[in-house]
Amino acid sequence: MARILSKSRLSDAVYRMGIEAPLIARGRRAGQFVILRTDSEWGERIPLTIADADAARGSIDIVFQTVGVTTKRLSLLEPGDRLADITGPLGRPTEIRDYGAADRRGWVVVVGGGVGVAPAHPIAQAFHAAGNRVTAIIGARTRELVIMEEEMRRASDELIVVTDDGSAGRQGLVTAPLAECCAGPERPDEVVIVGPPMMMKFAAETTRPFGVKTTASLNAIMIDGTGMCGGCRVTVGGRTRFVCVDGPEFDAHQVDFDSFIRRSGAFRREEKAHRCRSGLFGSAGGAS
Question: What domains are there in the chain, each with its CATH number?
Fold first, then answer.
């Protein structure tokens, strides 16, 4: 049973937790995730990306949004409480390389939208540590929903904050500064996008005309984390792939985002009904 070491609230429905997991902390690499259960052998298994880790302390950090019953229950736990279990690190790690040459530093743009900023953080860290110049673009609807701004600033050479209403940073969508990066005299060697499926779809379409290598980190419906259940299947380049074992990262220009978006909402009605029955959210409309 993994002990919770710390807990903080990043925004109205987003939390950060430090969890005692020494083996995972030592073995994890950027882009990987864990699957955990909050309680009992019948508890729901949920995948969460490792937002940070401290090998010396033997801990990992997760960031999650309360969108369902299990994440709501997770948000009610406090330091000293224990999870039923946690498994990881899972998934293929990000392919980190130094894109630099004799006459230039490599340039990687990491784009995080909403809670996707959390999994974008270790990716930006790793590319920066490899010697690349990193531009981080993070977006949210309002200032109150911007998370991990200082962490992303430390992990990059340049940070661009974008909000829908202009209450923090630039007003607009992450695709605007992303297009500016791609349209300049020097194009990025790689763009990594993490966030809501619709954001990733339009970010991929933004980079496509420029021929910039673009990697998307997908957060799919996941159950067992072994590829056997098929719940996390996604179409990439016309072929079926499983996010838990083949991903979570894929060539964004090959991902069928329309089918991915449809599958992401496949159980929305059942989730809403379960939230209502559980009483954790008060009413069916109490969670986003």
Answer: 4-90 (2.40.30.10), 107-217 (3.40.50.80)
